[in-house]
Write a structure and sequence with these properties.
three-stranded antiparallel sheet; 16% strand; globular
Length: 285
């Protein structure tokens, strides 16, 4: 594939599959020695994806490779497959559906998990994983490894203002072991207001009542009792916005207006203030 003005040109590739999206557009699947996917999007949105991918990779989250591309004069984002070896896939939807039907609905366990799920009650999520993998020889090892990666993603949501992190976007692959697939969907980055009520980050039965919905910053604060040291260690390794932008070569030739939506610095400032406040209240005697 050749590049022109920073774009990969995909016109020589043949579409092998068309995948409809909820918003009415399509994702086009190609094969060029490896599976690649193209979805039409604005340049600003594509830059946000690439920026997010670099941040995630810098703190140890596995992500698909992403780049800007053009296909038949349509510009968008190209990404590699999150499952190039076609391993068995288990989404968190599979895990939570099983837990809901076999445990919660039979009232065997008191839980926040209802007919709709979120990723913000980490204890319930851990319980669901233990139940799903209960027949594996090394259940505890599997769940511990998966939760470690999921908790990192959970914190990354706040780092990137990423409102579209949901159970369909987290995939577990079964190869020689069970492991999270590289992350592959960044559509909601830089869209989350940490200080506003937002239903995605509510706990189920509160989600329909705006006055009772939790705020993202409140949910993050609630989790600090258990995860402060872990979150702080991740936070301390984050690169700056300028360091990331310097890694994206085609950025230098673009209008600064295309970068205004990347409010990474705002999230970093808010989270840093929260971490400092927590440390002052709880850790300093």
């Amino acid at each position: 594939m050749k590049k022109e003005d920073g774009y990969l040109i995909l016109d020589s590739l043949n579409v092998s599959q068309v995948i409809p999206r909820d918003n009415g557009s399509n994702i086009l699947k190609f094969y060029n020695g490896q599976e690649v996917y193209f979805k039409e999007s604005s340049l600003a949105l594509s830059i946000g994806h690439i920026f997010s991918a670099k941040i995630l990779k810098s703190i140890g989250v596995k992500v698909v490779e992403v780049d800007i591309a053009k296909y038949n004069n349509h510009e968008g984002l190209i990404s590699t497959s999150y499952n190039p070896d076609h391993l068995k896939e288990i989404t968190l939807k599979n895990v939570l559906d099983k837990y809901f039907l076999e445990v919660i609905i039979k009232k065997k366990h008191k839980s926040y998990i209802k007919s709709s799920y979120d990723l913000y009650n980490l204890e319930d999520l851990s319980s669901a994983l233990f139940y799903f993998f209960k027949n594996e020889v090394n259940t505890e090892e599997i769940v511990s490894s998966l939760m470690n990666d999921i908790i990192r993603l959970f914190f990354c949501q706040f780092i990137l203002g990423w409102y579209d992190m949901h159970y369909r976007n987290i995939v577990i692959l079964k190869g020689k072991d069970f492991h999270l697939a590289p992350f592959f969907d960044f559509d909601g980055d830089f869209s989350l207001d940490l200080n506003s009520n937002y239903y995605v980050v509510s706990l189920n039965n509160k989600r329909l009542n705006p006055k009772k919905r939790n705020k993202p910053i409140e949910i993050l604060e609630d989790s600090l009792n258990n995860y402060y040291n872990y979150f702080k260690s991740i936070f301390n390794t984050l690169p700056t916005k300028e360091e990331i932008l310097n890694e994206i070569q085609f950025i230098k030739n673009l209008s600064p207006n295309l970068l205004t939506h990347i409010c990474y610095d705002k999230y970093i400032f808010q989270i840093n203030e929260l971490l400092k406040r927590y440390e002052n209240i709880f850790l300093i005697k």
